[in-house]
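ok posting inputs for the guanosine-5'-monophosphate job
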Amino acid sequence: MSDCIFCKIIKGEIPSAKIYEDELIYAFLDISPINFGHTLVIPKEHHQSAASIPEEVAGRMFHIASRIGILLKRLDEFDAYNLHLADGTAAGQVVMHAHLHVIPRGAEDNFRWNWRQLNYPEGKMAEIAADISAKLAAKLNG
Ligand code: 5GP
Ligand code: ZN
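and the output
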């Protein structure tokens, strides 16, 4: 897409600190990192949603992101990493070219996910699981 900043980064029209590139994907440092080394892995083809990325490309993204994560983990101050993907504005997606964050983490990095843990009312969990699995099966078979 011509006005997409990540498409411009792939084309070299906007500079980036490149980590990796192949025929399907591009990886570069996030300009405002949670920790230094925070990397973005993106498909070369423009997709707004991760759901429209072809399986081969999505698989490559995950494969390379987790290997970058292992490398970041070995840097001095880190011993772990998060993979994060925001799909949609309400989920925190700001750049509308799907991207997988690889975030190096250390026990002392002073960053906390604001991750709450709700409780299902009686029966609700089974109801939601049945609903989603039926719709997913219809989608995958349709
Ligand atoms: P989102 O919130 O959409 O999941 O994340 C978008 C990420 O892209 C943010 O972490 C932001 O710092 C990063 N970002 C936005 N514009 C640029 C840019 O021009 N260059 C680089 N390297 N990263 C960017
Ligand atoms: Zn794009």
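notes: The mean pLDDT is 96. The helical segments are 5-11, 55-73, 124-141.
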